[in-house]
Design a protein that fits this description.
The chain is mainly α and about 160 residues long. It contains 6 helices and no strands.
Length: about 160
Amino acid sequence: MQNELTVFFTAMIPFLDLKLAIPLGTGLGLSATSSLIFATAGTIIPGALILWLIGPITNFLCKKSKTINNFFKKLFHKTRKEHSKNFTRYGALFLILFVAIPIPGSSAGAGALLAFLFGVDYWKALSLIFIGVVLSGIIVTAGTESVIALASLFNW
């Protein structure tokens, strides 16, 4: 069970998450499915926590500091003004694809910040982020398995 926990906790690392955890799990001898499951669970937890805590933390900071309050008002106003039309039109698909594309910075945590910025409901955002994480995990697993198959084909 130690390898599974290693994959689970590695997936919680921002910017690396399951992009590192799945190949690590495979390298530790776990099956692709097992690596995918533990990495997905490890990746979704920080995203859910960020999504749950960012509202109360932002509200608290805005009440304590006029500067922070003005910063967030300007940020939300500018972002929503410039992108709300597109986000309303493509919001669900955009959030899923943003999280699903396995590049650094496009993980569950970044998706949670984006969902908060556009005011997406907690459960809807969490569902969309989960779908994105699963798709990302499938892409990374397929890539990892492909590299392993090529390496064994050429006896590396």
